[in-house]
């Protein structure tokens, strides 16, 4: 049984093949075609933590593959409210479906789920640890928009300490050549040592002149143990049309979203701002992921 728990479980060959499959899915999505790959199958969408893009793009992906979806976005409406454990909840729901996409605020929750589930588990984010399917769609976006996944200078900006999308992205790019990272954060939100891989530079200044990819992130209120620290840091970086004038003409700005002010909405009309396209690419990428783990036998 295949699970998607950590991006570290995927080699370059695995990732390249998944992205090639996502590209095929993209052409079906663009033509408005539905595929039969998950016909008669059910996805459990278990969201123990808030989500817009991950949950709804997984649901959209499942519908486009002719499958159906059960689940919840509000754990208070489940027996968790009666103190049932996440492990028992997953074990039970895995009797009702063929694949589970889940998100939890707890690091390690997806791994735990994979140990008790009778169906494949897809990690849609486990606390501040990892968000592997976001990384897959981020890589798909970079491949589509820059035409390559090697020889890139990637500037990662914002909450690099708690940012799970950044953590998974750093690990995924270990598989690629001539990658340079610039980690831009205040010292309080610096990237943990385990993600400082390959060639990198750290700074607290928003220096984007030489970046091919600017990966902006939100300062995440919900991850701060001390809210006064959040108030101090929340507006530390903001990309405006003025900032964009300093960037390369062929750079791209990405953001996993949601944003809360770190990218001025006046930037949205600049062709280098690809964050909503990135959100759209979540559907074909997640179609490919669902096919990979649960699409056998069709
Ligand atoms: N990118 C992302 O994970 O967005 P949501 O939190 O809305 O799912």
Strands in their spatial order, largest beta sheet: 7-6-5-8-9
Number of helices: 9
Structural class: alpha/beta
What is the distance, rounded to the nearest whole angstrom, between the alpha carbons of the first and last residues?
16 Å
Gross morphology is: globular
CATH architectural name of the largest domain: 3-Layer(aba) Sandwich
SSE string, helices as H and strands as E = HEHEHEHEHEHEEEHHEH
Give the biggest beta sheet. Answer: 5 strands, parallel
Q: Which ligands occur here?
A: phosphoric acid mono(formamide)ester
Rg result? 19 Å
Brief sketch in words of this structure:
The protein has nine helices and nine strands.
Task: Characterise the protein shown here.
This protein has 298 residues and is an alpha/beta fold. It is 35% helix and 16% strand. The protein has two domains: 7-130 and 280-295, 3-Layer(aba) Sandwich (Rossmann fold); 132-279, 3-Layer(aba) Sandwich (Rossmann fold). The strands form two sheets. A five-stranded parallel sheet has the order 7-6-5-8-9, covered by helices on one side. The protein has a four-stranded parallel sheet with strand order 2-1-3-4, sandwiched between helices. Helix 4 links the parallel strand 3 and strand 4 (121-126). Helix 2 packs across helix 9 and helix 3 packs across helix 4 (109-116). It starts with 11 loop residues before the first helix and ends with a helix. The relative contact order is 0.17. The mean pLDDT is 96. The structure holds phosphoric acid mono(formamide)ester. Phosphoric acid mono(formamide)ester binds at residues 51-54, 125, 134, 256-258.
């Amino acid at each position: 049984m295949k699970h998607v728990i950590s991006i570290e479980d995927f080699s370059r060959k695995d990732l390249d093949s998944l992205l090639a499959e996502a590209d095929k899915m993209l052409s079906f999505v663009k033509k408005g075609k539905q595929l039969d790959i998950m016909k008669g199958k059910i996805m459990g969408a278990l969201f123990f933590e808030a989500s817009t893009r991950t949950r709804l793009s997984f649901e959209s992906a499942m519908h486009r593959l002719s499958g159906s979806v059960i689940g919840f976005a509000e754990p208070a409406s489940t027996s968790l409210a009666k103190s049932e454990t996440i492990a028992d909840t997953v074990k039970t729901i895995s009797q009702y479906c063929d694949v589970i996409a889940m998100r939890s605020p707890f690091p390690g929750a997806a791994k735990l789920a994979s140990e008790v589930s009778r169906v494949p588990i897809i990690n849609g984010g486990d606390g501040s640890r990892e968000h592997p399917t976001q990384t897959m769609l981020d890589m798909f976006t970079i491949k589509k928009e820059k035409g390559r996944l090697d020889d890139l200078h990637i500037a990662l900006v914002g909450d690099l300490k708690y940012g799970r999308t950044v953590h998974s992205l750093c690990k995924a790019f270990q598989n690629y050549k001539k990658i340079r990272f610039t980690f831009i954060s205040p010292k309080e939100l610096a990237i943990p040592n385990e993600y400082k891989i390959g060639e990198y530079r750290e700074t607290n200044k928003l220096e984007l002149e030489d970046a091919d990819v600017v990966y902006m992130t939100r300062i995440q209120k919900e991850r701060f143990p001390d809210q006064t620290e959040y108030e101090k840091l929340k507006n530390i970086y903001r990309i405006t049309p003025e900032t964009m004038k300093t960037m390369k003409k062929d750079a791209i700005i990405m953001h996993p979203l949601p944003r809360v002010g770190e990218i001025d909405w006046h930037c949205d009309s600049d062709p280098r701002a690809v964050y909503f396209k990135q959100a759209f690419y979540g559907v074909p990428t997640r179609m490919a992921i669902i096919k990979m783990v649960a699409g056998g036998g069709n």
